[in-house]
Amino acid sequence: VAPSDVGGGGGSNRELTITWVPLSREYHYGNNFGYIVAFKPFDGEEWKKVTVTNPDTGRYVHKDETMRPSTAFQVKVKAFNNKGDGPYSLTAVINSAQDAPSEAPTEVGVKVLSSSEISVHWEHVVEKIVESYQIRYWAAHDKEAAAHRVQVTSQEYSARLENLLPDTQYFVEVRACNSAGCGPPSDMIETFTKKAPPSQPPRIISSVRSGSRYIITWDHVVALSNESTVTGYKVLYRPDGQHDGKLYSTHKHSIEVPIPRDGEYVVEVRAHSDGGDGVVSQVKISGVSALSPSLLGFLLPALGIVVYLA
């Protein structure tokens, strides 16, 4: 029985990869079973033959530094055992690996988005054999060998790098890649992430019902020396138990939101900075009570009124 589905191609630079489906044990018909792989350039005269002694393998990779990239080869495979050789498979035509890109991406730039994210952009190389782009980045206090890698398709012009350290120097470079490997790196770009967002949450001091709206007030957040300066506040108004709602932005220390028509709502407040959003504080409101329990505890003693809440 001859091996089936002989094919292959691709692989790393200067390689010819040949594959086939291994024969099951019932077709070995003897000991010392293996395969003979034969291949030659499509227009060549002489077959080169290689013995593969592993009976369970279905792959052979031929390396030759003189091999031209993307060259057509004829390949065929047969099995053997201690009694002799079996028949050759049908002859397949495959291509040797293509060359890795020889050009480096140009016009590489970086935009710092926050304390933990940056965006990298570049111009495409003109070679047609580019299948992807690889972005390598590493912190200045780390070794380049420990660089992180992000791979994007050849249609992309940018990539977003996440989970970076705040207030840290990073180096970034971009390479064009294909199945044969990656080409030379672009010019190395140096960048710094922003300081971390504020670590203190806004302290909500009151939640007052006024007509058809609630007025939520909080203390100003003061950033520490190693944190980004507060530029405003983000307020999320959402139904209790849900993650989505209406998002407000304000530079004030208070905001007005509608009284919920039914059920309870949550108002989340967090400081915003160039480094990102800070820690959230929240308060629940509803259309039932004229005043929230927290505000009752704040106002009633001042008025000399004692109440008991069931």
UniProtKB/TrEMBL annotation:
Main location: membrane
Start and end residues of each Fibronectin type-III domain: 2-99, 104-199, 200-293
Sequence intervals crossing the membrane: none
Originating species: Mustela putorius furo (European domestic ferret)
GO CC annotation: axon; plasma membrane
InterPro entries per record: FN3_dom, FN3_sf, Ig-like_fold
CDD domains: FN3 (cd00063)
GO biological process, one term: brain development
Compartments, as annotated in UniProt: Cell membrane
SMART domains reported in the protein's UniProt record: FN3
Protein name: Contactin 1
Keyword tags: Cell adhesion, Cell membrane, Disulfide bond, Glycoprotein, Membrane, Signal
Example GO molecular function: cell-cell adhesion mediator activity
